[in-house]
Amino acid sequence: MLIDGERVSDKQFTLDTVLRHVPADQVDYIEVIEGGRPGLEMLGQTVVANVVRKKSADKATVVSVSNGFFLDGRNTPSGTLEVTRHGTAGRSFSGALSASQYVEMAEGNGPQVRRDSTETVLDRVAVDSAAGA
């Protein structure tokens, strides 16, 4: 996967995550490269997609906020600020700041409710836990 001919540097991002950060209205075209071309390291892949963005935008700021709600009453708020600036000679400068709260699926803060097969409440307790040393 390439963005404007450059390999995505952070290996923790999945294809889905990378594509979500490129708004559709900023995509000029997507080229499929088969077999390689001079100067392009395919890293053992036979086919690579290159998402080519429109050159008209010189800066972009994106703010996203979300909150996941669990049936047991817990939630996981998060927010991200992304800034991109296009400089001279085709150089781009990007940065992101993200803050989120996560809930361990096995435990976490909030109510814990046990129900039987008929949805009758068997037990209800408040859970307050902390992670780390």
Q: What's the Cα radius of gyration?
A: 22 Å
Mean pLDDT metric: 79
What coarse outline follows from CA principal-axis ratios? elongated
Low-confidence stretches: none
Describe the protein's architecture and organization:
The chain is mainly beta and 133 residues long. The chain has a domain at 1-54. It is 5% helix and 48% strand. The protein has one helix and nine strands, in the order E-E-H-E-E-E-E-E-E-E. The protein has one helix spanning 15-20; strands spanning 2-3, 6-7, 27-34, 47-53, 59-69, 75-86, 92-100, 110-115, 121-127. The strands form three sheets. A four-stranded mixed β-sheet has the order 2-1-4-3, with no helix packed on it. A hairpin with a 2-residue loop joins strand 1 and strand 2. The longest helix has 6 residues, at 15-20. It is elongated. The mean pLDDT is 79.
Topology:
Elements: E1 2-3, E2 6-7, H1 15-20, E3 27-34, E4 47-53, E5 59-69, E6 75-86, E7 92-100, E8 110-115, E9 121-127
Question: Summed up, what is this model?
Answer:
This protein is mainly beta and 133 residues long. It has 1 helix and 9 strands, in the order E-E-H-E-E-E-E-E-E-E.
